[in-house]
């Protein structure tokens, strides 16, 4: 059975925020509903920045995925970051993640993206193995962040 990927629209905001809350709890990321809702709204309103999808399986929403576009001199042009992907526990292990990756990569290709990046916890060995099998490679760099906005 194939999953269905629906481009998110503002009417999906509450559903997506609920999934984000679950994902952040799963990964131990601090969650601020106002901040995350604002970021999500901004991304959905500006497709030049990327895309958000609801992931459906057997008629039910079982997750979401967000990819954000950027630009990289190193990679020779537009790049993308798989910012978030989350599936409910009962939806895992059914090939939905593989289908999600195919949808995301095709979207990146059609948008002129030269490279796709993602972040994964080293402790999440299953995810690391999956991403490596999907063609992603580890780089000997550390992702560092500094928050500069409110």
What labels would you give this structure?
globular; alpha+beta; Aminopeptidase; 27% strand; five-stranded mixed beta sheet; 4 helices; single chain
Give the overall silhouette. Answer: globular
Return residue spans where pLDDT drops below 50 for at least 5 consecutive residues.
none
**Main sheet attributes: strand count, strand direction, barrel closure:** 5 strands, mixed
End-to-end separation in angstroms reads 43 Å
- State the secondary-structure class: alpha+beta
**What's the number of extended β-strand segments?**
5
Q: Indicate the percent of residues in helices.
A: 25-40%
Cα-atom radius of gyration: 15 Å
Helix/strand order, N-terminal first: EHHEEEHEH
Could you name the CATH class?
Alpha Beta
Order of strands, main sheet, comes to 1-2-3-4-5
CATH names the topology as Aminopeptidase
Describe the structure.
This protein has 150 residues and is α+β, with helices and mostly antiparallel strands. It has four helices and five strands. It has helices at 13-27, 33-45, 96-110, 125-133, and strands at residues 4-7, 50-57, 60-72, 77-87, 115-118. Strand 4 (77-87), helix 3 and strand 5 (115-118) form a beta-alpha-beta unit. Helix 1 packs across helix 2. The longest helix has 15 residues, at 13-27. The mean pLDDT is 94.
